[in-house]
């Protein structure tokens, strides 16, 4: 690791931090890189299981700066080291509560109270999984939730997509650029996706559909080999031999902690006002906890950059009267 450079003095005694970042994925760590280099004392409340979804991936080929690709956990380790090199304090504890009515803002993580002049929420979103045997064990070894990330690894192979909404249609269409066969497995007898997306799927000769079908098990040793299925109409069972399976049954923003003071949409995604601002002054948001569209590591990092810069601008303002 390169020599540590501290751009901001850490608070002493009861002094608040300049910036508290909740989360530890690309958005959170990029925010910290910018705030520390902007001379703002920064604490990252990263969680006991840190690093976000990239900790579950293998080779990442679409993050700039790595022409030969980079392992997801390695990328996150490098980001963390970079943030810590510039003076960010990383606390590997879960945030249990927040109080945005107080100024400075108050946060409790691992039973310890922290206060901060600004807060960046970068808790991300969680993929919804099937919850069947073999799925968890083969994540990153044929089980994926991101075709734009992993589709090139399935060139010339046979894959399945589980789901029936627009995201499932998008995954399937991306995969047809690489795979020889794409099977969409859907538990109902019709898709929930928009008519336009369905039309594209039905027009693609590479895509086949298994209706009224549920995956009951993902089978494989070192990689996905096949899926065990059940028809929920006639209860017949079967198997589908594939090299990979893409689960596209939705995402859930990790925003439960902030319900009440922070405004959200009906799905729990945090609402953004003017770039990265939330409805509360001095509280910003970055990444998949608000982004429903892009959901890529590089865009998440970009949102982190924006939130970090917005927090610095806020700190430059005269202290408000509360």
UniProtKB/TrEMBL annotation:
GO terms for biological process: removal of superoxide radicals. Its cofactor is FAD. Its EC number is 1.8.1.9. It comes from the Bacteria. Binds 1 FAD per subunit. Keywords: Disulfide bond, FAD, Flavoprotein, NADP, Oxidoreductase, Redox-active center. Residues 18-299 form the FAD/NAD(P)-binding domain. GO terms for molecular function: thioredoxin-disulfide reductase (NADPH) activity. It holds the Pfam family Pyr_redox_2. It catalyses: [thioredoxin]-dithiol + NADP(+) = [thioredoxin]-disulfide + NADPH + H(+). Belongs to the class-II pyridine nucleotide-disulfide oxidoreductase family. Homodimer. This is Thioredoxin reductase. It comes from Candidatus Woesebacteria bacterium RIFCSPHIGHO2_01_FULL_38_9. The lineage of its organism: Bacteria, Candidatus Woeseibacteriota.
